[in-house]
Amino acid sequence: MLSPPHIEVTEPARRFPPCGVDNTRPSHHLNDSKTLFGNPWLSFRFQSLFQWASAVCVIQFFLSRSPRIPKNIKSLVPKQTVTWGAHLGNESSAKATWLGHACYFVELPTPPGAARGVRIIFDPVFSNRCSPSKWLGPARFTDAPCEVEDIPAVDAIVLSVFRSSDACASTDIPTLRALIANPSSSARIFVALNNAAYLSGALDTPHHRFHELDWWDERFLRVALPSSVGGPAVNAEVRISCTPSQHVSGRTAFDRWHALWAAWVVDDLHSQKKLYFAGDTGYRTVRDGEDEEKVPVCPAFAEVGERFGGVDVALLPIGAYAPRAMWSNLHASPADAVRMFKDVRAKKALAMHWGTWVLTSEPVLEPPELLRKECEVAGVDVDEFLVPALGETVMF
Question: How far is residue 254 from each of residues 123, 155, 163, 257, 359, measured CA to CA in Å?
Fold first, then answer.
């Protein structure tokens, strides 16, 4: 069994100005103690109290509007045996494997003399239910493509949103425990502000393994990778950047907005490959009767594209968007995803945030079908925005 690689995390000189300048409080901070946050753009509007609390809405959604799951759904959502890209060769390329919902396992290009590249997993969720409870809530309608214990040792775990004490669509305590327990891993966990203390306690993991960032903060991750020929370790370095996204947080009904949410950019300093992970995010708020093309859109994605000069691949959500009046402020539709793809200036996009749980009312197979139509309308080639099969590895 391989011993875990030595990992260091340091804070580099700031490249981007913080959200608050001249000692002013950042616009997404709602207090001075960094314990309350908000979305500071016109693109975010709250759902009305009627939408959240109306018994009519609840009954309509859960009883009459819940989409039908075909009995053969597991054969309709493509699935491949997970290989982590070992059969693809080409060690100069990065590899991204879709593991369901918003979870991607990424291995960056292998540096000369190393046995592998730096490995990062995003928003890992392997529990059966998307819920704070293991007994209640939406259950998977497709199986995970592998067991969590089959995932190779990772060097970093990156989370976009943390919302519950057990499992939810973005974060899953049992899965995190399993990843951290791998004796070949000494993974560091990257989260947005005010998430680390809770996770450290819930996972019984030393606080020094967590790195808590505000929007536009960055860290260097240095990993001593195993040698391919049994020689000394090969040092690799990536830059991890925390960027804005449009969402909410809350572990209970009483702590909403108390932890920050984020998207992330990973820049491999050896190969210069750049990856953007949008996480769980909305793009605009659309009310009934409004023209989607005329409402404000979140400016954060275009800002990412400008500041980073584009990325090689963007991992973008395409599902959990209906009804739009209820979910558009929090979740991206296929049309939103195509707009985000262009905003962040990605060379390639890979779809996620669909095909795992019934979270909203659109038909479960609609997101990739609608994505193809939206790409055609927007002039995006079929090989530019891919919908990987469960377990499929894509090189970039």
Answer: 23, 33, 12, 9, 22
190 contacts 238 by C-beta, under 8 angstroms: no
Q: What average pLDDT values come out for the chain (396 residues) when binned by 10 residues?
A: 90 87 86 95 86 53 70 96 86 94 97 96 92 73 97 98 55 91 96 95 94 98 95 97 94 81 98 97 96 97 98 98 95 98 98 96 97 98 97 97
What Rg, from alpha-carbon coordinates, does the chain have? 20
Q: Which amino acid is at 106?
A: V
Q: Give the pair of three-digit tokens for residue 291.
A: 């023209």
Q: How far apart are CA 183 and CA 168, in angstroms?
A: 26
Label residue 147 exposed, middle or buried (CB < 10 Å: 0-12, 13-18, 19+): exposed
Beta bridge partners of 98: 104
pTM of the model: 0.94
